[in-house]
């Protein structure tokens, strides 16, 4: 079920680092535009008042804790159950469609009057599209690592970052640096995708689900 102590440190570090590499462009833009220094960020992160405010905010808890935990767990378990029947690739890309609809945000946006009905609906459709891709990514991590921690942290991080603001990057005074970071992030992500999720790092002599081109790939308990 993805809850175990073997390989817990790599499960915390490598999937999150891999996801941060993918977001290299947005992180670069954030670093350029952020008025805070690194020391300021550390002070805020260590401030109990900051965490008290976060933990008392129901929307923060939903987006950073509850949704990553429940969504990643259900998506990973669906994938593990589907692998023996449909194969790894089909399982990974199918299971997010059952969970990551995000159409409940339509009700929330309407409640707070944040746009027209048509605009809100189109936004929900767009969100569904890219979160389905992200759901496949977290299911892949779950199957490769056998840990729940990696998908949860990646989900929480992506909820914090949001969808990359590419249009803003194109208009940025330092757009060449930022766009180069976008491209470099994607290239490095693809390069490190399999090495960083190598099952041997995570305490399994045999991978949870052997994701190879072989048609005999199975899920091991």
From TrEMBL:
E.C. numbers: 3.4.26.1
Transmembrane stretches, start-end: 12-32, 77-99, 120-142, 148-166, 178-197
Alphabetically ordered keywords of this record: Endoplasmic reticulum, Hydrolase, Membrane, Protease, Transmembrane, Transmembrane helix
CAAX prenyl protease 2/Lysostaphin resistance protein A-like domain mapped to chain residues: 89-161
Membrane-related topology note: Multi-pass membrane protein
Chief site of localization: endoplasmic reticulum
Pfam families in the cross-refs: Rce1-like
Top-level lineage group: Eukaryota
Family: Belongs to the peptidase U48 family.
Record protein name field: CAAX prenyl protease 2
